[in-house]
Amino acid sequence: MPKTTTLPGGKVHELPDDLAVALAADETARGAWLGITVLARNEFICWVDDAKQKSTRERRIHRAVEALGEGKRRPCCWPGCKHRERDGNKARDRNDGDGTKPVRRKRGGAQSEGPQSVEDSELKRSIKGSRT
User: Fold this and answer.
1) Would you call 32 exposed, middle or buried from its count of C-beta atoms within 10 A (0-12, 13-18, 19+)?
2) Rounded-to-integer distance, Cα 111 and Cα 101, Å
3) Which Pfam families match (predicted)?
């Protein structure tokens, strides 16, 4: 059996033994595990640890090995590790309380043209009203 102690864990979570054994048994998944970031490893570990039933945990371990073998870098349909700090850098997490809204993005990453603050909204209304 391949040595499992060489596989690193995540930023917050240690690599559980059952997941380590499954990763060590699959060469492709093991290589992918070593190639993803410490935060991505953390997501997989937390996803597996979050299972309440043994059967769910086993299924998630199987799916994690399968996903890593397919080149996926994060668990599918997982909102993220609840232990991860939210530092407000993402637009959807930011609210400065100064009347500004977070930047909205359209599909494909393009920034919307909508107003970003109450002042911008009022200015746009006054400009629009002066045109008519």
Assistant:
1) buried
2) 13
3) OmdA (PF13376)
Q: How far is the C-alpha of 98 from the C-alpha of 4, rounded, in Å?
A: 51
In three-state secondary structure terms, 111 is strand
> Running DSSP on this structure, what letter comes out for residue 13?
S
In this prediction, residue 91 has a pLDDT band, given cuts at 50, 70 and 90, of: very low
Rounded CA gap, 108 and 93, in Å?
19
User: Which residues contact residue 100 at a Cβ distance below 8 angstroms, ignoring those fewer than 6 apart?
Assistant: 116, 117
Q: What pLDDT is attached to residue 1?
A: 44
pLDDT band at 10 (very low <50, low <70, confident <90, very high): confident
Question: 56 pLDDT exceeds 90?
Answer: yes
Residue 111: phi and psi, rounded to 5, are: -75, 140
Which amino acid is located at 45 in the chain?
Answer: I
